Amino acid sequence: MKPASPGVAVLALLALAACQQPATSPTLAIAAAEATRPASAGPPIAMPSLAPDGGAIAHLKPAERPPISSDEAGLWLLSDKYEDQLRTSGSMVRDPALNDYVKGVVCRLAGAYCGDIRVYLVRRPGMNASMVPNGTMAVWTGLLLRARNEAQLATILAHEIGHYLRRHGVQAMRDARDKSAAALFFSVGFGVVGVPAAGDLVALGLVGSMYAFSRDNEREADDIGIRIMARAGYDPREAAKVWANLIAEVKNDEESKDRAIFFATHPEREERLETLAALAESLLPAVAEPRLGRAEHEAAIGPHRLGFLIDELQHRRYARLEPLLGMLAADGFRTGEVRYAEGEMYRLRGKEGDDAKALAAYEAAEVSGGAPAELYRSAGLVRLRQGDRAKAVSAFARYLELLPDATDREMIRMMMAQPTS
Amino acid sequence: MRQGIRARCAVAALVGLLLALGGCVQSSFTTTDKLQRRAADLRIVLMPIDVTLAEVTTGGNLEANAEWTASGRQHLTSALGEFLDQRNVRTVAYREPVSDPDRARFHTQIVKLHSAVGRSILRHQYQQSPAVLPTKKDRFDWSLGPQVGALGTEYSADYALFVHVEDSYASEGRVAAQVVVAILFGVVMPGGVQVGFASLVDLKTGEIVWFNRLLRREGDLRQPDPARETVRALMDKFPT
């Protein structure tokens, strides 16, 4: 996946191009995953044989660092700086159990490379993860929210591991170097060099910028990623579902026309879906007991889901949230919380008819149980907006009864006392 | 990404403008002529130097170079040490408190804060910048806040010195392209640039008492002697 915003990391924009594996190079040393493969499974899953044009970038070996005199070491230098920024960022999720869970999945996938990939959980809505050349992987909480089982989470993590193993970062840098030189010779040849291009000047902070992965990189990371996940015993059919769910979100989002950054660099979504689905069928026979890991995933993510949903609500991209909430409600985990979030979405959006939908969702949340006490405050606010003072006051009273020390208690009492809002 | 390129062009255009004006503008600011000291010696903590050396490729891309950066950091550190020694300053090297993660985190936040404030100064203080603030027109008052006092207590130091430098050098291909373009079109295509800034922070108040920036087409941190020259330029009008 690609970083969707310059905010997360200018460095994450380091890009990448297709890496090719020499025909003679060994298959990936996904040792741990290999070791756990049941004897009853089909033939081992081969790593992809790569582009036919004979490029010479081999996989990184476990614990390998590029030599200091190489161009790749320069990228790692910038990556190390980015990692320092990320590590000390206020957006890091520091909950040990959640970190351990995601790291555990990464290690299961990465095998011998487990120690080379460092996972950072970033508290941020939206579905994204990124990888920079030195093995720094950033995973947004919006992704954890959207992966509906461990196999789906593994789909994205394995894709990112694919970028790392194939050294897409250095390939992209070299591509950009070649392209800019070609562009310069082209301009000189056609006599169009009149003034220095502004972009040629170097300025503070620009040494840190990197390049975007190419579509070929993304295709390759998809390809290697699904193989890695299948090797680790996950059901490869889940890979296509991740994209299907994301497509459902995006299609519902009329506002997303100029925001579909993700798709700008990723292979055409339908093409991607079909390729992954076909690959999954071919890989499936080699996976003895295709694992979904739904219960494990729920145990790890469940306690945080409401918080992630509230972050999404603050993003105010309701059209994308709507299909997601529908899917989460259908999953049946912590339904009270999910329905509460649904009510919040309608209350905040406040379109024609949304008040009634919000109240219905709050009621459903109440019936399911497990919703936070704030549900009553929200219901009170909707009732006030509808002009139903009696019901508003009783909802507020319930809120204060459940949370007598709420920080906004005085404001709530004031709203209960005043004739109109 | 496109946004990144726009920002890059904007900053590059700004730097171009500043380079053009470079000869005649103020580059350093000082709020004091005389530094205050707790004891007989003036003690300054040298914070981790943030330095990156890069190569300008034929097409004008910037690529960080790890080997150059390592030697550049070394040369810069020793040249700064010499510079301060000559002014009878006791330089205290910063050491990350590895056994105390909370303290290490606090220090990191100070460094990040300084980086943000330093970039704001570059953007908003210098009169030739298009983003100069009217409130900063006739005065220089920037601060990291009094919390940095903890650093002073830890190191028994009076001030902290922060340095950020980015230096780039034209590759052979770039030099060749510059020659060709100059001959054919009579224009100079940019090669390497040395940019950076340094600030001296009063650890009693958090105020930045001296600030200077570098912005020029010369210098070479890969070699010890030119690095000394860069330090002299960077530490221009440094009070003692």
Key traits:
heterodimer; A: 421 residues; three-stranded mixed beta sheet; 3 strands; disordered N terminus; B: 240 residues; alpha/beta; eight-stranded mixed beta sheet; 6 helices; 8 strands; globular
Structure explained in plain terms:
The complex is a heterodimer of chains A (421) and B (240). By secondary structure, chain A is mainly α. Helices cover 56% and strands 3% of the residues of chain A. Chain A has a three-stranded mixed sheet with strand order 1-3-2, with helices on both faces. In chain A, α3 (96-110) crosses α5 (150-165), α5 (150-165) crosses α7 and α7 (215-231) packs parallel to α10 (269-283). The two termini of chain A are 46 Å apart. Residues 1-41, 49-56 and 193-203 of chain A have low confidence and may be disordered. In chain B, strands 1, 2, 3, 4, 5, 6, 7 and 8 form an eight-stranded mixed sheet that branches. Chain B has helices spanning 2-21, 66-86, 101-124, 149-155, 172-185, 224-234; strands spanning 28-30, 42-46, 50-56, 62-64, 89-93, 159-170, 194-202, 208-216. Chain B is globular and about 60 Å long. In chain B, 40% of the residues are buried. Chain B is an alpha/beta fold. In chain B, β7 and β8 form a beta hairpin. In chain B, α2 (66-86) packs across α6. Chain B is 40% helix and 22% strand.
